[in-house]
Amino acid sequence: MFRIHVERVVGKDIDTVFEAIADHASYDRFPGVSRSVLIEEGNDEKNGTGALRVIGAGRLELTERITRFERPNRMHYRIEKSSPFSVQHTKGEIVLTPEGDQTRVIWISEGAVQVPLLGRMMDRMAERSFSKAFSSLLKSIEKL
After folding, report:
1. Domain around 116
2. CATH code for the domain of 65
3. What is the 3-state secondary structure (H, E, C) of the chain?
4. Based on CB atoms within 10 Å of each CB, which residue in 62, 103, 118, 137 is the most buried?
């Protein structure tokens, strides 16, 4: 099982940070993201609860559903489909808290890579690569 926990204070106000994280169709502006598409709009807001997005990074493609959306403090998501390997995703949440004119972001993702015999090794690889990717994305938001 992989458990990713990234915490960072971003040098931007909470509304700017939340908007950057919630703008699903624009993730391809972040390092390492080669494709980002909003497939279905959310129920009450375009990028809100119910929205379905596809995020691609090289050969990896994740189809994610937004399951909770509380502007500007919280967004939860679930990986519904992934390739080239399957992921059983149990938790995906991003929590934002204002700290003056900056924003503390806590990004948690948990699950398991579903590959016989190699799953545990791939879980560790997923922890490293996704932790790095989440950190890089948050760092990039400071430059917007």
Report:
1. 2-141
2. 3.30.530.20
3. CEEEEEEEEECCCHHHHHHHHHCHHHHHHCCCCCEEEEEECCCCCCCCCCCEEEEEECCEEEEEEEEEEECCCEEEEEEEEEECCEEEEEEEEEEEEEECCEEEEEEEEEEEEECCCCHHHHHHHHHHHHHHHHHHHHHHHCCC
4. 103
